[in-house]
Amino acid sequence: MRKAALLTSFGVWGLAIVLSAQVPDVSPIWTVDPVDRSSVDYTHIPLWAYGVSETPHFDDEQAVQTHPDAPPSRSAWSSMSRADFARERRLEGSSLTVTWSDLRDERGGAQAVNWFPDHHPSPMPPIVTQGPAALGNRSRACGGCHLADGSGRPENASPAGLSATYILRQLADFKNGLRHSVEPAKANSNTMVMLAKAMTEEEMQEAADYFSAVPWRPHVTVIETDLVPTTEMQGELFIPTAKELTEPIGNRIIEVPTDVEASQILRSSGGTWIAYVPVGAVARGQDLVTTGGASIVNGEIVLGRATACTTCHGLDLLGLAPDVPPLAGRSPGYLAREIFDIQQGTRAGSYELLPLMKMAVERLTAEDIIDITAYLGSLPVDGVAGPDRTLGTR
């Protein structure tokens, strides 16, 4: 079943192992708050952005990643030899040597691997390397999912380079039940809510200060194409199963790691991603982002379906202080989820301008969301160009 599979899914390497040792009860931290999603219109949900193939239902069971009470899943462990488990692993460009136990904790959760310590402030604070102290050995490290440099992955956010004010507001919104996913079984979103609840104000400040001090690293290459590689889902992430582009892209964006082992297995904080988008999406998205889709008819301006993103997020789409976030160069998958969550009202929040954002996106179609996020993902940041930032066509 979809719900049962997602409950313990963390990719082929994701392991939901129940700790044998007794640990203090941290309820209700690991109990998902009830969320009323009955008003969500799932008709035009961009399934590709949520990493699912079936349309959710508002009362689907809510999942969390590697829940402490989840049943054991030993498939990955049993298929790994003792020698392979202890094998030293390296990443090009890094002097670090790790084993599998350095990459994953006892439950299969990702560890915050410090592959490139020169790329971010050091030392990393405990909240980044271990997670909220209140959860003890049931905690999850911020850097495990968002990576040591905060660059994140398509299935989660990229906090690097965001203002501390913005990060603190988001943590507070998670903690206060104001920010949720439309997808009940999007495990990492529900986990984020519970982690925020467990964080102290000091831990929130430490996390915000750390990630805001990390320089933003553009890491998405947008390629327009009619065909994409065949893929499989691993923990809400598209993983290519072939190098050849043979599958029609259809009405979606397919975002895959450039190097599967580096990004998916070794959790590299230097990983890069390819976002395959439909041909013509970038040009259509540019029109929506810069004009809102407005046009001139018989000498008169006719407003479009949207409000130009540049109105609030800046002409360069790099955000505005203190807490209007940047959009340029960000993951299309992440941006698409946030647009749809805001459109449907599950991402509410305490920011007084958020209702304006909801008005700006309320009439966007699934196709519009593809076009807008394809264009935003294609934008260079701070003049960074070259092979990893050049828009290609296939």
The separation of the N and C termini measures 36 Å
Enumerate the spans where pLDDT stays under 50 for 5 or more consecutive residues: 1-28, 71-78, 383-394
Radius of gyration: 20 Å
Q: Give the spatial strand order of the biggest sheet.
A: 8-9-3-12
The number of domains is 2
**Mean pLDDT across all amino acids:** 85
Order of helices and strands: HHHHEEHHHHHHEEEEEEHEHEEHHHHE
Mind telling me the CATH superfamily name of the largest domain?
Cytochrome c-like domain
Backbone structural class: alpha+beta
What is the strand tally?
A: 12
In terms of DSSP E residues, the strand content is 5-15%
Q: How helix-rich are the residues, as a percent range? A: 25-40%
Enumerate how many helices there are, as a single number. Answer: 16
For the record, what CATH class of the largest domain applies?
Answer: Mainly Alpha
CATH topology descriptor of the largest domain: Cytochrome Bc1 Complex, Chain D, domain 2
Tell me the CATH architecture of the largest domain.
Orthogonal Bundle
Overall morphology:
globular
Largest sheet: 4 strands, mixed
List keywords for this structure.
394 residues; alpha+beta; Cytochrome Bc1 Complex, Chain D, domain 2; 16 helices
